[in-house]
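Supplementary Note 3. Input sequence used for the single-chain structure prediction.
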Amino acid sequence: MSDSQSSSSSSSSYDSASLGLPPPNVDGNHRPSDDSRSLSQGLNPTVSRHWRDVFWLLIFMVHLTVVGLALGVLGLNRFKTKDRLNIDRYTMGFLENKDGLTEDYWRFYAVAGGVGTVLGWIWLLLLGSRATQIMKFSVHILTTYLAVISVLCFWCKQFFWGVAFAIGASLQFLYVISVIDSRLPFTMLVLQRAVKMVWNIPEVLQVACIFMLFMLLWLALWSFGSAGVVALSIGDSGRWWLLVVLSVSLFWTGAVLCNVVHVIVSGMVFLVLFHGGQEATSMPPKPLMNSLRYAFTTSFGSICYGSLFTAAIRTLRWEIRGLRSKIGKNECLLCCVDFLFHLVEFLVRWFNKYAYVQIAVYGKNFNRSAKDAWELFQSTGVEALIAYDCSGAVLLMATLLGGLIAGTCAGVWAWIKHSDRVMMVGSTAMLMGMILVGLATVVVESAVTSIYICYAEDPSLINRWDSAFFTLISEKLHQRLQHRSARAREVLSHNIDYQIQEAGTI
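The predicted structure, written as discrete structure tokens, is reproduced below.
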């Protein structure tokens, strides 16, 4: 057994009892046994967990309180009456003053929230029958949609946004032709099995719908304050800075709620795979409620902490991989990109989405969960399979498309009523739509991450669940490991030949 596997197994065993899992075997894998502890009650409410990353829990709650109060003040200041709270007296004389009321712009955000919610619910409703078609459609239509929005921005003389969306369309196109098209069959295979798993656990779909409603309540307050900012008389630059701050806050809040769903779904999927089905006699009572309780108490700080970084790092990793595959033999550029690639890979070791499965199952803190998950993948070779899989990118594209549709609907109406505010309203409305659709897509992403964790922990769990899928995924893993080995031999041979040539010229 390798040192990294030993480290992973030892660190994951300390809290296994809280889930009712058996202690690790010699090879570090959790396997069902006849031991009484292996038949304990999964997410056992009688076994206490330690609170993790409490500092970040406090930071998030303080942030939520401060931002909530600021949103209320900004929205009320322009609600029905101009400058209700006399904020303009602090800006008069050095910033422009314009007429505008909160309710003039709040309705645009209501449209974005409604469209985002409908798209999210449609996605969940079609999850069992049309999810694959929706994901393929999102992959291939997103480039065109970005290009069309870029043209509309240029037509409306919004040159900055036109260039931004044109760059986005170009990057999306390059990514699709360099990565997605060659890997799409395997990616769709994994997503189909994840959809199958989620569809057989209807409780997690209900959880996603409930969290969308909770998010809508926060978005009602957030959009109220944002509408007040758009109506505020502090000039375009001041409004943009305030909207950026509020958008960062919304991104963090939305990521936290999405990752709470991620933890809940991951815990449910892991238990179903481990115990051999929802109807198994060894399944613990009320696993969903226990998972929900842990996600909002002892593990909530870890979720808040990880939500700050994981999404940004994952997106950066995908873009660098797509760029790396298109560089060719430009040694200077390849060296720079390789440096960024290894830097991002180091960050992935400490901030990855697979940490949430470890948080759900073992109740660890975030950094330890991310490190243990990555060491588990590297020690078993499953990391090569994960690097080949693009399911996260496909789901992100579906989320982006949903956000763009919501932002377009709000932006078009804003352009008709207030053409000078269209980009402010459209960009922030797009973020609202992305978060709402993301709460729907995260249930599938959680199933994918749990399947990989279970496959790395004990492949027999996947074999028992779906033997055909187990055979296909094992064959693909064997191919990827052979490919990596061949590439490593090629690089080593190239380096040796280069050193021989250098030695011959001296």
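The mean pLDDT is 80. The two ends are 45 Å apart (CA to CA).
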